[in-house]
């Protein structure tokens, strides 16, 4: 099925092959997938810069994840382990069991009128049924769109209105260490708010907290499953969408990243071997929620396409029950490769700096730890590597790409990148760092990190029903390139150093958030005249949003009361995932003469980094006021004569 050859020079050869002959390289990788019609057109560039991979191929992704392994005599191998410290349970499913569950549930959704091409929203906690729901959609050619449970009803409503689903799949509750999250009231609110009316919801009742079902609209998952007829896999075009995943853009409107079936299957299969060094039967654990791209790719699709065992985890790094949880899971399930976000290890290191809770767990099965989702500080990477006793690979990718753009590709060749860099471009990603004039800059020089088109298989094919938005957001700034939105530089060995976002997207505990969205919510408060939100550095979560708010004049509300209402409003409108708690009420916001808020300076002030009033600001006393107000809410600001480059430009 797979096996990557790990040999010296293997990376350089594969990289050059993928760059110079992409159609040939990916045709070879496509051989690992079972097609109902083999593609003859590998790369369709007739509509460039919109490219289509495997244009005339036909396949079913669920067939490749499940049925194919069962038919190959591997039905008794473990496909999925659900480890749930919050319910104190561990469940195991073989490939045959998972195929049968998925086929039956595909029968349920088909009986609800869902057909190929229809959209299905999945709003569920980390339970096996969430994986079953995704694969059941894939089985009948429906397009799933998973919405992370930490988002509010209002955010769910936006996604419902954009995707226009035929069906919503949800559960009665999620279980956070501190509370039960009742999903049903949030879903009810979303269905109420959304203009698109969803006729049916299928709800999984968890024993921890059941919910009320609305007769005529809501259907009990377990009851209909008992009566369902299994559904077979429906072949779809390689270019048909498998899923839509919404991610934060710079505005309040989320972007619906569209993933196709064919390119995605090929890329997932390739990346499982090439990036992570996985082989069939390996145990792979990705500690992410299925609501994020990492969960889609590496809790579900890649490990199953390769025939691995995927561990899914309903718990936290600390508090469920303690900071030894990661070691317990690795030891108990003999995990071979582990993937999580740096923030998770920062959380562990904070409460258990000597890793005392790890004592007694045998983690000798582990070969490597992969980190992504945010910039990884060297201390955390070194600590995690030392305590687990394995190499640590920081790799860089985005919702848009579905797999790593840069990594140390352990499955091809161990290139051992320096800590702090995100490794070398993966075969298929021709990464270039461009200056403002669109020309490549020298190694060591910062610029826009871009990818020479075409993007490899697996990357977004467009934004949902918005080709123009796709071109505008990613392809128009530098013709011929995909613009990642991150800034960074290459070193002499071609390791990429990703330094941060160019736009107003922030990264909170590995979750990508738009400051524009938070500003929109705050500005809608009746007492607020205007607001600016920036991501301030945080030792645990990487960044946290902090708002600077100007109140309307003539009001008699106490600033502290308004600030508390704003915090509650953001939680209600966006969700707890925003981790939004800091509001400084200020007199005015600093703007350039053209009316642009000087956000980079505000961020420097909040970070306690050296800052200087930009020359474009008329009255620098505004910044002194902001500094005082930020200090009052706990931000350690200090003034220096160095300049805030971004704002001055
Ligand atoms: N449903 C409902 N609420 C959720 C939720 C979910 N699925 N996930 C998180 N929340 C809530 C939390 O309970 C918390 O609420 P609170 O304000 O009442 O405490 C809030 O959202 C913020 O959550 P988070 O920032 O995730 O903090 P945490 O302490 O719950 O978890 C980590 C810490 C490190 C475990 C978590 O941030 C994490 O897993 N991050 C990695 C993200 C990731 O996988 N990204 C993908 C790239 S690898
Ligand atoms: P998301 O689309 O939610 O996965 O977020 C993608 C963004 O997270 C990227 O554009 C980066 O800004 C950031 N990111 C992800 N992985 C890394 C990494 N290894 N190093 C630095 N930043 C990262």
Describe this structure in words.
The protein has 649 residues and is α/β, with parallel strands linked by helices. It has 2 domains: 10-315 and 395-488, Rossmann fold (3-Layer(aba) Sandwich), CATH 3.40.50; 509-632, GMP Synthetase, Chain A, domain 3. It is 32% helix and 24% strand. It has 19 helices and 33 strands. The strands form 10 sheets. The protein has a 7-stranded mixed β-sheet with strand order 6-5-18-17-19-20-21, sandwiched between helices. A 5-stranded parallel β-sheet has the order 8-7-9-12-13, sandwiched between helices. Helix 3 (61-74) runs parallel beside helix 10 (293-306). The longest helix is centred in the N-terminal third of the chain and has 17 residues, at 95-111. The protein is globular, with a radius of gyration of 24 Å. It starts with 9 loop residues before the first helix and ends with a helix. Adenosine monophosphate binds at residues 247, 293, 372-375, 394-399, 422, 485-486, 498, 501, 507, 512. The site of adenosine monophosphate has 19 residues, from strand 27 and strand 28.
């Amino acid at each position: 099925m797979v096996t990557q050859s790990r040999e010296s020079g293997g990376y350089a050869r594969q990289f050059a092959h993928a760059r110079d002959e992409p159609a040939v390289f990916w045709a070879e990788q496509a051989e690992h997938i079972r097609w109902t019609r083999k593609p003859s057109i590998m790369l369709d560039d007739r509509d460039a810069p919109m490219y289509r991979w495997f244009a005339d191929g036909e396949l079913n992704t669920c067939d490749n994840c499940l049925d194919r392994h069962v038919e190959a005599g591997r039905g008794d191998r473990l496909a999925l382990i659900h480890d749930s410290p919050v319910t104190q349970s561990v469940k195991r499913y073989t490939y045959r069991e998972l195929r049968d569950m998925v086929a039956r549930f595909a029968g349920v959704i088909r009986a609800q009128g869902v057909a190929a091409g229809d959209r299905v929203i999945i709003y569920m906690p980390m339970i096996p049924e969430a994986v079953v729901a995704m694969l059941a959609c894939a089985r009948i050619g429906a397009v799933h769109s998973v919405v992370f449970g930490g988002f509010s009803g209002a955010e769910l409503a936006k996604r419902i209105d954009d995707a226009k689903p035929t069906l919503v799949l949800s559960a009665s509750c999620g279980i956070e260490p501190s509370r039960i999250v009742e999903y049903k009231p949030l879903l009810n609110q979303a269905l109420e708010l959304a203009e698109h009316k969803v006729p049916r919801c299928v709800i999984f009742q968890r024993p921890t907290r059941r919910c009320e079902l609305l007769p005529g609209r809501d259907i009990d998952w377990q009851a209909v499953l008992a009566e369902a007829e299994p559904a077979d896999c429906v072949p779809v075009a390689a270019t048909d969408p498998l899923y839509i995943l919404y991610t934060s853009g710079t505005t309040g409107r989320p972007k619906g990243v569209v993933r196709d079936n064919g390119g995605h299957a090929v890329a997932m299969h390739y990346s499982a071997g090439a990036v992570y060094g996985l082989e069939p039967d390996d145990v792979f654990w990705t500690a992410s929620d299925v609501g994020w791209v990492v969960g889609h790719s590496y809790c579900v699709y890649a490990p199953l396409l390769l025939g691995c065992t995927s561990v899914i985890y309903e718990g936290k790094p600390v508090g469920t029950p303690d900071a030894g949880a990661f070691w317990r899971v690795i030891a108990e399930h003999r995990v071979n490769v582990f993937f999580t976000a740096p923030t998770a290890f920062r959380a562990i290191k904070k409460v258990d700096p000597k890793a005392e809770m790890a004592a007694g767990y045998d983690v000798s099965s582990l070969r490597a730890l992969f980190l992504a989702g945010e910039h990884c500080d060297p201390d955390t990477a070194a600590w995690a590597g030392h305590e687990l006793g394995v190499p640590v690979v920081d790799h860089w990718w985005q919702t848009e790409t579905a797999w790593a753009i840069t990594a140390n590709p352990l499955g091809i060749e161990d290139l051992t990148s320096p800590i702090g860099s995100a490794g070398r471009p993966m075969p298929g990603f021709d990464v270039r760092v461009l200056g403002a004039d669109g020309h490549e800059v020298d190694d060591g020089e910062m610029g826009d990190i871009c990818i020479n088109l075409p993007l490899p298989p697996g990357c977004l094919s467009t934004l949902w029903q918005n080709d123009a938005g796709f071109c505008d957001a990613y392809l128009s700034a530098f013709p011929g390139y995909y613009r990642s939105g991150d800034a960074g530089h290459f070193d002499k060995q071609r390791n990429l150093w990703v330094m941060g976002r160019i736009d107003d997207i922030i990264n909170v505990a590995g979750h990508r958030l738009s400051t524009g969205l938070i500003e929109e919510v705050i500005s809608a408060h009746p007492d607020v005249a205007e607001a600016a939100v920036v991501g301030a550095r945080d030792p645990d979560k990487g960044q946290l949003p902090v708002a600077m708010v100007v109140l309307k004049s003539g009001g008699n509300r106490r600033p502290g009361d308004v600030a508390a209402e704003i915090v509650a409003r953001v939680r209600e409108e966006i969700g707890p995932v925003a981790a939004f708690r800091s509001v400084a009420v200020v007199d005015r916001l600093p703007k350039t003469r053209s009316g642009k808020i000087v956000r980079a300076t505000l961020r420097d002030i909040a970070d306690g980094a050296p800052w200087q009033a930009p020359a474009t600001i008329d009255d620098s006393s505004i910044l002194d006021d902001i500094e005082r107000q930020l200090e009052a809410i706990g931000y350690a600001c200090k003034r220096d004569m160095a300049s805030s480059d971004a704002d001055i430009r």
